[in-house]
Amino acid sequence: MLIPMELHCLTLRKGYLSPELAIGWQIGKYVEEFFDGLEEVWIAAARDDDAVLALSYLTRQHGHPGQVIVPETARPWDFLFYHLTTGTRLGFTLIRQRTRLPQKIRDLEPDLCVDNPAVVEIYQASLNLLIKSVLCQPVTSFCQVRQARCRRLLSKHSSDQQTSCHRCGRPVPLSQAWDIEGDICCPACTGLEPVWYTLH
């Protein structure tokens, strides 16, 4: 199986090529092409696995270190990207049946530590097929991608002027309000990570 040279170098450093590494790589390259670079992109991942390693590697090569965060609580997406210049938010949700080994193959995992070459061969073949599928198919074949425009209100308002969030109904100072696809929202309803909208 042919893999991109940069991913091959990362695989050599890691010692193996996992489905998560391939997923992170493919999504990272998709976002890099979508935004014409990663320099102005903030990144969050729901789990700290090999996908985060791939994204961190790409940001070191094409962006800057420290761009990837992993929240401590559950999120409704698997990966989230926010482009500072355009205010574009991209959310990626994995399609599990296309990014995980079949259940009958996962059931073999307890036997991998046993000296059973036949089981190892079956498991490795399935793993290779999954990785090949991830690397050879477009990202949209194994992910749901949602895009939205998220921008701070351009107008300057005094701190005592307020409006109601169009999504949750809570009052929000206009100086802190966001425009999310035409809806005036509070920071919590932007769908962004808290550290992002507090630093924006």
**Biggest sheet strand line-up:** 2-1-3-4-5-8-9
Uncertain regions spanning at least 5 consecutive residues: none
CATH topology of the largest domain: the name is 60s Ribosomal Protein L30, Chain: A
Number of domains: 2
Could you describe the largest sheet, including whether it forms a barrel? 7 strands, mixed
Helix content: 25-40%
| SSE order | HHEHEEEHHHEEEEEH
Task: Describe this structure as you would to a colleague.
With 200 residues, the chain is α+β, with helices and mostly antiparallel strands. It has 2 domains: 5-145, 60s Ribosomal Protein L30, Chain: A (2-Layer Sandwich); 153-199. The chain has helices at residues 5-14, 19-34, 50-62, 96-99, 103-106, 117-136, 194-199, and strands at 41-45, 68-69, 79-83, 88-94, 143-152, 162-164, 171-173, 178-180, 183-185. The strands form 2 sheets. The chain has a 7-stranded mixed beta sheet with strand order 2-1-3-4-5-8-9. Strands 6-7 form a two-stranded antiparallel sheet. A hairpin with a 2-residue loop joins strand 8 and strand 9. The termini are far apart. It comes from Desulfolithobacter dissulfuricans. This is Formylmethanofuran dehydrogenase subunit E domain-containing protein.
Write the layout of secondary structure elements.
Elements: H1 5-14, H2 19-34, E1 41-45, H3 50-62, E2 68-69, E3 79-83, E4 88-94, H4 96-99, H5 103-106, H6 117-136, E5 143-152, E6 162-164, E7 171-173, E8 178-180, E9 183-185, H7 194-199
Helix pairs in contact: 2-3, 2-6
Organism: Desulfolithobacter dissulfuricans
Protein name: Formylmethanofuran dehydrogenase subunit E domain-containing protein
